[in-house]
Amino acid sequence: MSKHFPFTLSGLSDEAGPSLDQQIRAHVELGWEEIELRSVNGVPFYRWDDATFDDVRKRLASAGLRVSAVASCIANWHRPITAPFYYDVEELKVLSERMQALSARYVRVMSYPNDGLSEDEWRDRVMERMHLLTEEARTSGIVLLHENCSGWGGASAENTLYLLKEINNPALRLLFDSGNGISYRYDAYQFLQRVWPYVEHVHIKDGVLQHHKAMYTSPGKGESKVKECVEWLMDHQYQGILAIEPHLHLIPHLNKQGDENDLIDSYITYGRQLEKLVTQILSNREGERAFQ
Length: 292
What we know:
The protein is an alpha/beta fold. The protein has a single domain, classed as Alpha-Beta Barrel (TIM Barrel), CATH 3.20.20.150. It is 44% helix and 22% strand. The chain is built from 9 helices and 14 strands. The strands form 4 sheets. The protein has an 8-stranded parallel beta sheet. A two-stranded antiparallel sheet has the order 3-4. The protein has a two-stranded antiparallel ribbon with strand order 10-11. Strand 13 and strand 14 form a beta hairpin. This is Sugar phosphate isomerase/epimerase family protein. InterPro entries: IolE/XylAMocC-like (IPR050312), Xyl_isomerase-like_sf (IPR036237), Xyl_isomerase-like_TIM-brl (IPR013022). Keywords: Isomerase. It comes from Halalkalibacter alkalisediminis. Pfam families: AP_endonuc_2 (PF01261).
């Protein structure tokens, strides 16, 4: 179904279940040809042994699935700015080699939570590390996608734009997640409008803030303005990927995971709901043009 849309649909497959069988099954049932890898059986992509990686690669190819992007732990919530930089450098080396084997272009990164540093020192250390990581990515022929999430660069649209403009390298671009504004207390739609020129990948997530906690919902049913974000992407000729990240039963950074059957069923339902939302937007636009 996604092939009729102005962009391609995909998803962070481990939200369909921990096993590769579940992840493949969900995408095949949805009829999607793209898949975004983060973990299998709870083990992050970069920590797979060579045998596991080879098995995953072969099984994805056999199922006709292309890997659009992979998730990393680089600069994320587990690695504050005071953590050894060595971890990120070594992970990027592993990722680069495996991404070449998968013909994958994009790897998701963040930009280091603070750990007691002043704002200026935090920023300066982040910039130094991100310069080095971006140059390594450029040399390897891959692109770092900075998500509007944990870290200095995700704290505001101003920080995001500063990061991109100062580094000024095509190997660093943005992953826009429509649901992250709920957790980080900003309007994601306004954020998208500010950073749009650098966006090359999109995650679809929605939710509401209840009792100061993010509660995740079906796409278009929360307060993340998912419909408005998708319309904005259409209006600005975005032709990349919309990847679902439901967070209904799996929230990695909170170590939350639901029943395996709930995972796959809700993942497929979420994908169908996104397809329906996009179809409705397209249909409404066709109707509007018919009356002009």
